[in-house]
Amino acid sequence: MALIFHSKIRRDDWWREVLGKYVPDLEVRFYPDVGNPDDIEYALCFAMPHGVLAGFKNLKGIFSLGAGVDHFFADPDFPKHIPFARVVDDELTGRMSEYVLQHVLNHHRYQIDYDLQQKDHIWKERFPPSARNRKVGILGMGALGAGAAERLNYLGFDVAGWSRSPKDVDGVQSFHGKDQLDTFLERTEILVCLLPLTDETTGIINKDLLGKLPEGASVINPGRGPHVVPEDLIAAIDSGHISGATLDVFIEEPLPAEDPLWSHPRIRVTPHVASVASPNRVAQLAAENIKRIEEGKELLNQVDPDRGY
Ligand code: NAP
Fold it and tell me: Do 84 and 95 belong together in one domain?
């Protein structure tokens, strides 16, 4: 049984050893050294060049190295009929929650204003409302959004989430579907995007959506770059309607040196570091799913190709 592995970070010996520890009869090959493509039964990868997966005619399972799967569906030849799983993991959720908490607190406590004041040696106090009077809204209440919402609720924030279907997260108000989006936006002072990237969510943070947030709201995007229309965000900040933004993900990564997002005084940029799954856990999940496929069972964390996430 052979598995093809592909990642931009090469740690071939490590992956061979750890996958071999969990699935002893697995032969691990590293793209582009495929050997005979008909031997390949499993793929563990991220951003595989388009068309490659479709060439493995004996493929039984595809496993993403991360939580997001938009790269796979961007491949016009992606074999949608093959069972496909992504990573859902407490540690990954914990790291994302840290990122969200850090930046929600920064916006809640007006840190961008203080950074600007410090440059000019200005001593000017502005006291935030208490957390229970600060309304945080999370677009996307899946593994990562719900995890962040729970922790924000624990800190006392007034938290709401928006998803496709209703959710029941302790202390978190649930909005769902297109019909409830405006009401969710009208109450949201700090907006966090943890949606997957699909046709429906591409460009969702645009002029129209930003205009529905209350004056002075801020935006945090650790979802995917194309969720945000950058020109609309910059215009909304320059008009004073939006007070600032923190962005972890971008339409083009690395963010090109000349991109205006880098130097905007009210935008904070981080280099796609909000969260990552531990390689050991990824290998464990892949091994568990190989076992499940061999036993004819349903995959853990199976992706629905029709929904696109
Ligand atoms: P998930 O469990 O699949 O959750 C997705 C959530 O979005 C669900 O609540 C879903 O609603 C909602 N949703 C999807 N399409 C929608 C639509 N059209 N309208 C309303 N709600 C919609 O995903 P996850 O594991 O939380 O991950 C979310 C995203 O985070 C990933 O796709 C990836 O892009 C990003 N990510 C970023 C980093 C980073 O380092 N920056 C790291 C990991 C992941 P339902 O629950 O009702 O289906």
Answer: no
On the question of a cis peptide bond just before residue 32, with omega within 30 degrees of 0, the verdict is: yes
Report how many domains make up the chain. Answer: 2
CA distance 238 to 244: 9
Helix axes 90-108, 143-154, angle to 10 degrees: 50
Q: Given this model, what pLDDT does residue 278 score?
A: 92
> What's the CA-to-centroid distance between 219 and ligand 1, angstroms?
16
pLDDT at res. 11:
87
Domain containing 134: what range? 90-269
| Res 10: pLDDT | 81
Considering the domain architecture, whether residues 186 and 251 belong to the same structural domain is answered as yes
| Domain identity same for 187 and 165 | yes
Share of the chain above pLDDT 90, in %: 98
Tens digit of pLDDT for each residue in 43-77? 999 999 999 999 999 999 999 999 999 999 999 99
CB 200 near ligand 1, within 6 Å? yes
Query: Does the CB atom of residue 248 touch ligand 1 within 6 A?
Result: yes
pLDDT (tens digit per residue) in 234-267: 999 999 999 999 999 999 999 999 999 999 999 9
* 190 and 65 both lie in a single domain: no
246: nearest Cα among 186, 204, 191? 191
- What CATH number did the domain enclosing 11 receive? 3.40.50.720
